Amino acid sequence: MRSQARTMLFFTMLISAALTLGWVVSDSHAEDQPAEESSSFDLREFIPAGPSGADPSKDELFPLQPYELIPKLEGQVAYGSVENAPLLEQPIAYSHKLHAGELQINCEYCHSGARRSIHAGVPETNTCMNCHKNISTKDRPELEKLVEYYESGKPIPWQKVHDLPDFVYFSHKRHVRGGVSCQECHGEVQETMTVAQRVNTLEMGWCLDCHRDHPKVDENYGASAELRRAELKDCLTCHK
Ligand code: HEC
Ligand code: HEC
Ligand code: HEC
Ligand code: HEC
Ligand code: HEC
Asked: Could you give the CA distance from residue 182 to residue 231 in angstroms, rounded to a whole number?
């Protein structure tokens, strides 16, 4: 069933891409398709694993716990043609400028999945309370809300700011370990944002543009950089 559904999805993708992108794509991909079905040729076998290690699917930490965020709001656009998507209303007026900027808390202290898994993850209330247990809530309604959530045991219902469609495979781990910085994809969060805002479209062209000429590919793969670049534009790298 699953593989049927996948094959269906793949063909649907292929057809719509052929329609939108013209014959170039369908033609070049027509050669990849039988290879996937019948012969054992797999470009990946010719690509060394990055210096930073193994395939995320072989990571014992993977998959981590389910993603904690609640489903997106009606009408919210969490990816799409608009850059600088509107600022979402969040349950607590949390500030990246204060925590990641002024207080210089490392991004990965709160988004601890970034190096290990597909999802960077949003911190549990416990992580906030490591510090906030000791910070007075007096005359600070936002901190009172934080403590209320903590005491209720219910997770804070943060709204998703980024959300790729499910048919796209994206993993933080490979990017972060490959040396791509958070800011290249998320903007200068620590200087410009209170709650997070999506600054890039997350559309296919955005991914492909960076894959085409990011310098880390040459740095990480040396003589095999061209092969790696070919893999990074292969449909199956992002649509499995
Ligand atoms: C490493 C310590 C630390 C962590 C972790 C931390 N905070 Fe803070 N937070 C602070 C400090 C320090 C302040 C500034 C307090 C002050 O102004 O005296 C602050 C201030 C705040 C304020 C502003 C209060 C106000 O109205 O002035 C909010 C809201 C807040 N934090 C929410 C959070 C949330 C939500 C989390 C978890 C996602 C979190 N904090 C995690 C240290 C931390
Ligand atoms: C190559 C681009 C890229 C880099 C580098 C990157 N991100 Fe992301 N990030 C994304 C995309 C794309 C999504 C949406 C993923 C989805 O919906 O499946 C996302 C989603 C997120 C989310 C939402 C929750 C989740 O995990 O899906 C957080 C939090 C986040 N990123 C934080 C970070 C932090 C912190 C770093 C640096 C340590 C970082 N990101 C590096 C592209 C990137
Ligand atoms: C003290 C904890 C903390 C630190 C440090 C922190 N963040 Fe966040 N981050 C949060 C919380 C809480 C949210 C959810 C609220 C929001 O969307 O702003 C969040 C949300 C995000 C999102 C959007 C997630 C989504 O729903 O798509 C991105 C992207 C992000 N952070 C990037 C960063 C980057 C980059 C850094 C370092 C420069 C950083 N964060 C540092 C707590 C933190
Ligand atoms: C700012 C640059 C940049 C952006 C934007 C970007 N990537 Fe990447 N991506 C890279 C680099 C560099 C690598 C190679 C890292 C390595 O292997 O050392 C990579 C590797 C990958 C891989 C290979 C992972 C593996 O396990 O082999 C996938 C899949 C991927 N990216 C998907 C995406 C998707 C999907 C998007 C858009 C939503 C995207 N990337 C956006 C820079 C980027
Ligand atoms: C680097 C990652 C990456 C690669 C490589 C890639 N895609 Fe995509 N693709 C995406 C992302 C991200 C989206 C979702 C955002 C969007 O719709 O633009 C997407 C969306 C699509 C869609 C749906 C478009 C829509 O409007 O809903 C089709 C069809 C598609 N891709 C086909 C392909 C084909 C065919 C190839 C190979 C020639 C390919 N993709 C290669 C990342 C990638």
From this structure: 22
Distance CA 182, CA 8 (A): 34
Q: Which of 73, 77, 122, 193 to mutate to test the pocket of ligand 3 (most atoms within 8 A of CB)?
A: 122
Say if ligand 1 is within 6 A of residue 100 CB: no
Give 192-230 pLDDT, tens digit per residue: 999 999 999 999 999 999 999 999 999 999 999 999 999
Cβ contacts of residue 25 below 8 Å, gap of 6+?
17, 18
Would you say residue 136 lies in a domain?
no
The total domain count for the chain is 2
The reply to whether 197 and 229 lie within a common domain is: yes
pLDDT in tens, 172-198: 999 999 999 999 999 999 999 999 999
Q: Is 9 in the pocket of ligand 3 (CB under 6 A)?
A: no
Domain that holds residue 7: 1-41
Q: Which among 111, 180, 191 is the best mutation to test ligand 3's pocket, defined by most ligand atoms within 8 Å of the CB? A: 111
pLDDT digits (tens, 9 = 90+) for 43-78: 344 433 333 344 444 444 333 333 333 333 444 456
Query: How many whole angstroms from 185 Cα to the centroid of ligand 2?
Result: 7
SS3 at position 46: helix
Instruction: Say which DSSP state 199 is in.
Output: -
Q: Does ligand 2 have an atom closer than 6 angstroms to the CB of 108?
A: yes
